[in-house]
Every structure is written in C-alpha cells, then in structure tokens.
C-alpha cells in the first residue's frame, strides 16, 4: 500500500517533468524525494500531493469487491484497516505528510512564501504535540506511535533549520518564472528599504510593483528586477532607491 501510495506521487511528478532523485521507504511509510516541490506551479503541487491519497480510493474499492465475492477474511479485514489508517494519517496537517504539504501549498496562495513556511511548521508542531498528549492521556500510546512521533519531530526540526535554504530556492525559481499571469499589486515603499527585506514579501501567486517616491515624481520598480539584482547580480546590500540608477 505504501509503495502504491508513493507510486502515485512519483508518476504524477514525472508526468509534469519534475526531477525526482529517488523514493525512500521508512519503517512507517515513504517519500518521493524531489527538491522541486516548493518551486512549481500551485496546480502541479496539488496534483502531485493528491495523487498519493487517491491511490487508497481504488484500493478500498478493490478490497470491497474482494470481500463481496470472496467473503470475510482476516487478511482482507487487515488490509482495509491499514488502508484507512495510511490514508487518514497522511491527511493530517503535519509536515512532511501529504496533509502538511497541502496546507503549505494553500498558505502560499494566501500569504508570503516565507510566512507560509513558518506557519506550516508551527501548525505541524502543534498537531504533533497535541496528538502525543491526547494519546498519553487516553493511554493509547504504543511503541510504534512513539517512534513515529519522534520521527516527525526530527523531520520538522530539520525543515525549520532548512527554511532559509527553501526560501532561497524559491527566490531562484522566481527569477525565471512567468509573471504575466500573476495578479499585480502596487505597494508604496521607502527608497531606503533594503532589497533583501522587500523580497521577504514575495508571494507564490502575486507580482508586486513597488512605487518609490522620488523627485521629480514617482518611480515603479518591478519585483522581478529586485530578484535579478539579489540572485543573479548578487547585490545583497542594495536599497530600493539604488535600483533606478542601476536600471537606467
């Protein structure tokens, strides 16, 4: 079941041309390893994530048909139970489960990319701790549950440490992404604002145009130019007021 679940992710990711390095199998599940998941269009991200849980739908139908034609059997009952457990567990809003990644992708459509990373991990940590407390109070915590909880805590801690790298990778993707279809938002900004601070506001589904007040009038700086200067030109100490002089 885990293999079929990961095959769903893998086949969909490859159909979109994602670079997939390998598939990992753990004691409690698996993962399709790709560094591109956070730097792809929203539609592709959602399709790749949902293609895993959707495998459990046809598995459930198959098991139901087998139970109908063969009759009750302990092996089929066990298969139904684990199919349900894997599906529900993966939909929890915990990173790096499918539910956690789906939460992250949805948040990127509502708030900035950097804030989405932090919000997702805070929700994920909260869900893990809440689940542990509930299981301990109800005396339902098992050895497998403790190992799984420990694994998720470690993964979330590592992702928190990697959040800057994840954000920088997204900025690199932003340099070459097609911005024509993105919704435009105008923002007035102080010319003394560092470009690196402005880029913290980058959204996955929005294009910002910054209005600089300077004599004798106004000047508009495209967010794309900020990205090029910061990523490609490596001018990390620039201020927004310096861009008009460089660009023209």
Secondary-structure element series: HEEHHHHHHHEHEEHH
Helix content: 55-70%
Q: Largest sheet, described in full?
A: 3 strands, mixed
- Helix/sheet category: alpha+beta
Shape: elongated
DSSP E strands, number: 5
Q: What's the number of structural domains?
A: 2
Q: Describe the strand arrangement of the main beta sheet, using strand numbers.
A: 3-4-5
**Helical region count?**
11
Provide the gyration radius in Å: 23 Å
Proportion of strand residues? 5-15%
**Low-pLDDT residue intervals, each spanning 5 or more residues:** none
> Gap between N and C termini, in Å?
59 Å
Organism: Halobacillus naozhouensis
Subcellular location: Membrane
Membrane topology: Multi-pass membrane protein
Family: Belongs to the peptidase M50B family.
Describe the 3D structure.
The protein is an alpha+beta fold and 248 residues long. It has two domains: 2-172, no CATH class; 178-247, CBS domain Like (Alpha-Beta Complex), CATH 3.90.1280. 58% of the residues lie in helices and 12% in strands. The chain is built from eleven helices and five strands; from the N terminus they run αββαααααααβαββαα. It has helices at residues 2-15, 42-50, 55-70, 74-90, 98-108, 113-137, 143-161, 163-176, 195-198, 223-232, 243-247, and strands at residues 22-25, 30-33, 183-189, 206-214, 217-222. The strands form two sheets. It has a three-stranded mixed sheet with strand order 3-4-5. A two-stranded antiparallel sheet has the order 1-2. α9 links the parallel β3 and β4 (206-214). α8 (163-176) packs across α10. It is elongated, with a radius of gyration of 23 Å. The chain crosses the membrane at residues 48-70, 85-107, 119-137, 143-160.
């Amino acid at each position: 079941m885990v293999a079929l679940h990961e095959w769903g992710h893998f086949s969909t990711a490859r159909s979109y041309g994602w670079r997939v390095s390998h598939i990992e199998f753990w004691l409690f599940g698996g993962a399709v390893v790709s560094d591109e998941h956070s730097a792809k269009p929203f539609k592709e991200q959602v399709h790749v994530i949902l293609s895993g849980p959707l495998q459990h739908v046809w598995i459930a139908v198959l098991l139901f048909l087998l139970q109908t034609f063969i009759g009750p059997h302990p092996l089929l009952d066990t298969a139904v139970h684990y199919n349900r457990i894997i599906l529900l567990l993966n939909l929890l809003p915990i990173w790096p489960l499918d539910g956690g990644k789906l939460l992250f992708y949805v948040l990127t459509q509502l708030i900035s990319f950097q804030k989405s990373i932090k919000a997702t991990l805070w929700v994920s940590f909260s869900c893990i701790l809440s689940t542990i407390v509930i299981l301990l109070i109800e005396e339902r915590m098992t050895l497998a549950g403790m190992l799984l909880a420990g694994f998720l805590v470690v993964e979330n801690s590592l992702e928190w440490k990697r959040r800057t790298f994840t954000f920088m990778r997204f900025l690199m993707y932003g340099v070459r992404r097609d911005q024509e279809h993105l919704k435009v938002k105008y923002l007035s900004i102080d010319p003394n604002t560092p470009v690196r601070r402005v880029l913290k506001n980058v959204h996955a589904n929005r294009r910002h145009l910054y209005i600089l007040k300077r004599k004798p009038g106004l000047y508009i700086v495209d967010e794309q130019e900020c990205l090029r200067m910061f990523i490609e030109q490596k001018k990390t100490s620039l201020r927004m007021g310096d861009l008009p002089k460089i660009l023209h």
